[in-house]
Amino acid sequence: MSSSPSLLSRRRATPELELPVPPEFRCPISLDLMRDPVVGPTGITYDRAGIEAWLLAAARCPVTKGDLRADDLVPNHALRRVIQAWCVANRCRGVERIPTPRVPLTPAQAAEALAARRLQAVVIKEILASGAAIDVVTENLDAIIEVLVETIKDRISPQATKASLIAAYHLALAAADDHAAATRLAEAGIVAALVELLIDSGDRNTAEKALAALDATLVSDAGKARARADALAVPVLVKKMFRVSDTVTELVVSALHRICKKCGGDDEATAAARRSAVVDAVQVGAFQKLMMLLQVGCKEEATKEKATELLKLMIKYEAAGGGGCIDAMDFRGLKRL
């Protein structure tokens, strides 16, 4: 009986499956190539993920049946290096080199690391807020940005998150001329991290700080590009417009204005992304909310001007695209603007 074509094509697409994996490289539990080999007092080596999952159900070695705890496991560095060398030697056959795993932290080490991250974020915030020691910041910009972005992503504590948001805000505005810091923050992934934080955060203070950091990052072309490419950025901003505080409303309008506003040096791709952001804003109800904002009144004249400009952009692109997302009733009172 002939082999199934689908199976044959699948084998051709994954040449590493055709290469026999040495038995000593396989985990006794999963029978897969070990990526993070660990050995216990019983002398048997397992892949860490497999044995830790096993020990959740039974504190015994699956091979020898002897007592075994997760704390007893130690990395088998020698075997891991041999496996990595084998992967490298066979990469021409489609085998990818396994990365060197990080050693897991003990609870005490984890607590110490979290405390250090909190302290780092607070210290960076104080330095940037005071404007002092700016040379130190410049010399260590990449390391500082990495700490801030990772702390915002990980949300290790409310204090550390808020300190990192304040620090990111000051950092993004530190080099206002060339927006170098804002660009580096955007490239490090802060826009997506801030959008995720805004989705999950119900705290007014955190939302205000996150939006301030986002608006500051959007002064850079890289920040605007990341926001336009993020499918959730515009919907989250529009959703937050009237839900939190006057400060949040002003920051949302400012951020939307940066994302949607036309810049003189826009290339074709940038212009298309900007138009798409404007259309997305209309589709999620930004036009109606901006109309309401202008009818109720803005505390800041700059916010009123940005809201008015956004409305004109939305009308322009809605008319050009024929999307039909703006109801005719929404134009009532537009002449009063």
UniProtKB/TrEMBL annotation:
Native source species: Leersia perrieri
Descriptive protein name: U-box domain-containing protein
Annotated catalysed reactions: S-ubiquitinyl-[E2 ubiquitin-conjugating enzyme]-L-cysteine + [acceptor protein]-L-lysine = [E2 ubiquitin-conjugating enzyme]-L-cysteine + N(6)-ubiquitinyl-[acceptor protein]-L-lysine
Keyword Transferase: yes
Family matches, as InterPro entries: ARM-like, ARM-type_fold, ARM_PUB, PUB22/23/24-like, Ubox_domain, Znf_RING/FYVE/PHD
Known function: Functions as an E3 ubiquitin ligase.
Domain of life: Eukaryota
Annotated U-box domain residues: 20-93
GO biological process: protein ubiquitination
Presence of the UniProt keyword Transferase in the record: yes
Keywords, sorted A to Z: Transferase, Ubl conjugation pathway
EC number: 2.3.2.27
Pathway the protein takes part in: Protein modification; protein ubiquitination
CDD domains xref list: RING-Ubox_WDSUB1-like
SUPFAM superfamilies membership: ARM repeat, RING/U-box
MF GO annotations: ubiquitin protein ligase activity
Classification via PANTHER family: U-BOX DOMAIN-CONTAINING PROTEIN, WDSAM1 PROTEIN
